[in-house]
Amino acid sequence: MSITPASVPVLPRGVRLHHDRVRDTWVLLAPERAIRLDPVGHAVLAEIDGTRSFATIVATLAGKYDAPPERIAEDSRGLLTGLLNRRMLELTE
């Protein structure tokens, strides 16, 4: 499944964004898995609420960080595709 502008990314049941206070870093937790997030990964995943489309998330990030939407979309699509392949993200339309 490819990510389109109308796709709505959703963290599936059992997957959550978590701040690791001991290491002072953000991680994405899933059953028996954890991924340490860099600031870009955290910024993208923090915008996922299960209701906003990919296009809306890209526009929000582009405005927040004063960056070209095309670049935000490319980087975000890469991150989210990797999470889709690991079954740590789902898409709805």
**Strand order across the biggest sheet?**
2-3-4
Percentage of residues assigned to helices: 25-40%
Total domains, how many?
1
Order of helices and strands: EEEEHHHE
Radius of gyration from the alpha-carbon trace, in angstroms: 13 Å
User: Termini separation (Å)?
Assistant: 11 Å
**Count of β-strands:** 5
Q: Under the CATH scheme, which class?
A: Mainly Alpha
Largest sheet: 3 strands, antiparallel
Residue runs with pLDDT of under 50 for 5 or more positions: none
Let me know the CATH homologous superfamily: Coenzyme PQQ synthesis protein D (PqqD)
What would the CATH topology be? Arc Repressor Mutant, subunit A
Question: Overview of this structure, please?
Answer:
The protein is globular. It is an alpha+beta fold. Strands 2-3-4 form a three-stranded antiparallel β-sheet, with helices on one face. The mean pLDDT is about 95. The protein has a single domain, classed as Arc Repressor Mutant, subunit A (Orthogonal Bundle), CATH 1.10.10.1150. About 40% of the residues lie in helices and about 25% in strands.
